[in-house]
Amino acid sequence: MKDQISLLKKRPLMPLYDVVYHYLKQDILKGVYKPGDRITEEDISAKAGISRTPVREAIKRLAAEGLVEFLPKRGAIVLNNSAEEGSFLWDNRIYLETKLSELAAKKADDEQKAELREYIRMMKESEGTTDSDEMEEILFSMNEYILQIVKLNQAERLYNLVNTFSSEVTDIAMKDHARLSDAFKEHIEIATAICENDAEKAASLTHDHLLKWKVIYMKQYFPEYTEE
Counting beta carbons within 10 angstroms of the beta carbon of residue 207, is it exposed (0 to 12), middle (13 to 18) or buried (19 or more)? Predict the structure, then answer.
């Protein structure tokens, strides 16, 4: 974990507790931590070479999402999550992000659309590159900017709550450059629809984009999952 956290410390938009959270969550969902395993602040902070404060905040977030449970004098205990629960969270993420894209397309002003067009330009220039880190950073920044366009006080909190699988999707994408390249093109289409104030198209493209990720993710982490 120490090397993984060190790699993401260079990303200024992501607080350290968020980095710890993403990697702990990834290890839970991958089965590195089994149901019933104990996660302690002392152990994680020692392994990662960081203070206990960001670890504590990360574990609180995992508990809020139902991935772990706090037990007196035992720390955090990993809970058992089913394919049904994973599918439920994905469906909520798809619903929320679809609505966010729809609202962004309705609210985007000329200045915001100019900024989005700059992201589109960067994405088009990066098409065909093998630098997955660069591609990921552009996608991450664009998604953050769309949240800024929406400007709803609770939007980011709700987004973070249902966006449980973002780091795991990134992990899959880093190993599947073809899928990452397709995702890049899909983001260009979504951003273009927002720039055109086409709310219906932006929502439809976002829904289809995330549905593809849901199927890929569920099949990898929940072998018992079957498409509906």
Answer: middle
* Domain ranges for the chain: 2-78, 83-221
At 93, the pLDDT band (50, 70, 90 cuts) reads confident
Scored b (16 or more CB within 10 A) or e, 159-191 reads bbbbbbbbbbbbbbbeeeeebbbebbebbbbbb
Topology of the domain covering 2-78: Arc Repressor Mutant, subunit A (1.10.10)
Report the chain's mean pLDDT, rounded to a whole number. Answer: 81
Q: What token pair was written down for 119?
A: 């992201």
pLDDT tens-digit map of 29-70: 777 888 889 999 889 888 888 888 988 888 988 888 778 998
From the list 180, 172, 165, the residue with the least C-alpha distance to 132 is 180
- Domain 83-221 CATH (choose: 3.30.457.10, 3.30.450.20, 3.40.710.10, 1.20.120.530): 1.20.120.530
